[in-house]
Amino acid sequence: MAEQLRDTAEPSPRTSNGAGRAAELAQLRRLLVGPEQRRLAELAERLDALELTPDALAEHLPDAIALRGSRDAQLGRALAPTVETALRESIRRNPREIATAIFPVLGPAIRKAIAETMAGLVRSINRAVEHSLSLRGIKWRLEAWRTGVPYAEIVIKHALVYRVEQVFLIHAESGLLLAHVSAPELAVPDADLISGMLTAIQDFVRDSFRPAEGATLRSFCVGEHTVHVEAGPQALLAAVIRGQAPDDVLLRIQDTLETIHLQFASQLADFSGDASPLQATRPLLSHCLETKLSFEHSRTPPRRAILRWALPLLLVVGLLGAWWIRAELRFRRAIALLRAEPGIVVVDASRGWWRLHAAGLRDPLARDPATVLAAAGLSRPVLSGEWRPYLALDSGMIVARARLLLGAPPALESALRGDTLALRGTAPLDWIARARQATLPPGLARLDVGAVEPVWPEALDALRRSIGESRILFAPGAFDLSESATLLLRDVAARFSRLIEAAAAAGGVIRLAIVGRTDPSGTSETNESLARQRVDAVAGRLASLGIDSALFSREPLATSQPLPAADAEIRARVNRSVSFVVSLSIGPITPGGR
Amino acid sequence: MLQKKICMVGVFGTGKTCLVQRYVHSLFSVKYLSTVGVKIDRKEVRVGSQTVSLLLWDLEGRDQHHDINPSYLRGAHGLIYVVDGTRRETLDQLSELRELATRTLGDVPSVVALNKVDLADQWQLDPADESALAAAGQHRVRTSAKTGEGVEATFHWLAEAALGARSA
């Protein structure tokens, strides 16, 4: 029919109204085959589209990208290298363009990154402070110190949830190691041997148990370690995990292996022993290394912790308090003792943990401060401090200093009355003389030795005794001196003169009592008169012999104090006599002396 | 560093393990051979300016009950066949071993270690045997675990051959 139509519609040059017929024919054609023609054109267009012309691609590309992107991440991974190259090229050509484009996002991104870094830092500082200061932290440090294991290892031991310690990328066919990463402190020198053996074990298990096609040994446990193996067509990824890793860690391992297969497909396919092109996978592998710690599980409930520590703490505080109070009391008592001690002036005092410090002035004659404290039972704490010398004017020190200076005999008692030092007791005559002449120490104006009884020097005492034993005898009723009496008196006078000189040299004054006696016969008046006459006769003779009569005292006792004798006759004869009593006294104070 | 997987195969008792024991770095004990059926050691060889790390897969010896496990051969870059020169039958089984290896691996460099050469009085191979190997294009080295003869040469030759195969 088409043939027929075309023949019919063909315009004849010979026809007069040819143009009008052609138009009619065209209209007729449209009416008859128009729908078919349009259909044909559409089909032709579709056929063109099947060859993916740029137009068609341009029309469907966005949808296609969106569709694939919603299914998985493969498109992104595939495009990433190209996009990176394009970006690099663009930046190389015109950096300003990219800088302008990303400027609006760069600022907030930097701020966010800084904020997150700071937050992380604060968290880690908090954690560090918490662990360093907590009892547990101290306990772990002690454990580290005791065992010699690093502190970080001890923390991991107690707080580890899981830790991906090593990741091996292994060539599936040969078992050769392609890349390996491990936690910083782990040294794994034989990773290549372990890699080979892991593959061999995979083969061994597969051959031994004949699992379904494609099945592999996914994981095995050794103690607290789990080895998780992900198998890909070209490579295996084996992760050594300490502790219990959650699923997302295993998913990340799986994801990493897929990424490596995608990005390093050609390097894996061409691998023949040279692993250097695959070292670029290390950042991806390192991303799998992770440590997760938890400090929650071992925390003791606060109340129990308080109860557990409260008692020892109270005990320690109590002991320290008691020790402190005791030390303070001892300190106060020690200072009070030192203050009360003559010759010591405490200027500065303080208390240390083990020492007592006191400083001030000390008279050289005062007791040593440590001796003072020791005498009171305070030998601890040890006393330290500097004592500067001074002269103390308290009575005890004045007396002590004076006694020392004068060399006073220990038996001599001393007492201070105002500025006078009064001495009492017995002392050698020469000492008394020296003491009276000595310069007195500060605080003393006068020395009173009136109550001191002088002790005769030995030579003088012998003279005194010999004079005392001499006796001038008289005839009954007579008072004249016989020849022998005159001789004896001469001797007495000589001895008395020597005695006066020696006593004067020693600062003493000698007195001579001339004692006259009579026998009991006769009246008392007669006897008294006779006794006086006898004393006068002797005194007169002694004066004539050069003895100063001012030194005499006349004592006519007559019969009142008779000398004893066994026989009456002898007694009468002995009492018809004059005898002598020599006494020694302290001489008068010489001008300038005391 | 370059790594090459080298498998050592042979009949049970040819002295494979003893042959290399002193010359390699070991991490795993000999026990692995009888349990997993393979023990892996490392031997570093210098070829020119390069150091090649040979990962030696010492495969459990073949006996009448166990054949070589072909899984362990996969991906190998070279083979060491160990023959006990004092036991002729170990040479006779060489062709079977080679057939198995070729089936799994294709054509890879290989060397035949004619071991226990120190036991001259018990030596059972005649020159014709070695000529036959040479004629078949098979490189061979006389070795002794006792004296160490030929061991380093074997490793060196194989490392070179594996490198050559790689560059070809």
Show the helix and strand layout.
The complex is a heterodimer of chains A (594) and B (168).
Chain A: H1 2-9, H2 18-50, H3 54-71, H4 74-93, H5 95-133, H6 135-147, H7 151-159, E1 160-171, E2 177-182, H8 191-209, E3 219-222, E4 225-231, E5 235-243, H9 247-263, H10 265-269, H11 282-286, E6 290-293, H12 302-340, E7 344-351, E8 355-362, H13 369-375, E9 382-384, E10 387-389, H14 395-406, E11 413-417, E12 420-428, H15 429-437, E13 446-455, H16 458-469, E14 471-473, H17 483-505, E15 508-517, H18 524-544, E16 552-558, H19 568-575, E17 577-586
Parallel strand pairs in A: 8-9, 8-10, 12-13, 15-16
Antiparallel strand pairs in A: 1-2, 1-5, 1-6, 3-4, 4-5, 7-8, 11-12, 14-17, 15-17
Helix pairs in contact in A: 4-5, 5-6, 6-7, 16-17
Chain B: E1 2-10, H1 16-21, E2 25-26, H2 31-35, E3 38-47, E4 50-59, H3 70-73, E5 78-84, H4 88-92, H5 94-105, E6 110-115, H6 127-135, E7 139-142, H7 151-167
Parallel strand pairs in B: 1-4, 1-5, 5-6, 6-7
Antiparallel strand pairs in B: 2-3, 3-4
Task: Describe the protein's architecture and organization.
The complex is a heterodimer of chains A (594) and B (168). By secondary structure, chain A is α+β, with helices and mostly antiparallel strands. Chain A has 19 helices and 17 strands. In chain A, a hairpin with a 5-residue loop joins strand 1 and strand 2 (177-182). In chain A, strands 1, 2, 3, 4, 5 and 6 form a 6-stranded antiparallel beta sheet that branches. In chain A, strands 7, 8, 9 and 10 form a 4-stranded mixed beta sheet that branches. In chain A, strands 14-17-15-16 form a 4-stranded mixed beta sheet. Helices cover 35% and strands 29% of the residues of chain B. Chain B has 7 helices and 7 strands. The longest helix of chain B is centred in the last third of the chain and has 17 residues, at 151-167. In chain B, 44% of the residues are buried.
